[in-house]
Design brief:
With 61 residues, the chain is an all-alpha fold. It has three helices and no strands.
Length: 61
């Protein structure tokens, strides 16, 4: 049994989840400016995870 598809799916799911969390933090008007700026970290990390996962799926990796 090959674990690569499950790993790539988990990476993609984690990336999408982190991106969603970052966008929610950035757009929440109840947070102060400093806390909203910290939303860029999960946004960027999630985007990178999703892109790596999609790239590896595309190349058969």
């Amino acid at each position: 049994m090959d674990v690569a598809p499950a790993l790539l799916g988990a990476l993609l799911g984690a990336g999408v989840l982190l991106t969603f969390m970052g966008v929610r933090t950035l757009t929440n008007k109840n947070y102060d400016e400093e806390r909203r700026k910290r939303g860029f970290w999960p946004l960027n990390a999630g985007f990178i995870l999703a892109v790596i996962s999609i790239y590896m799926m595309g190349t058969g990796g």
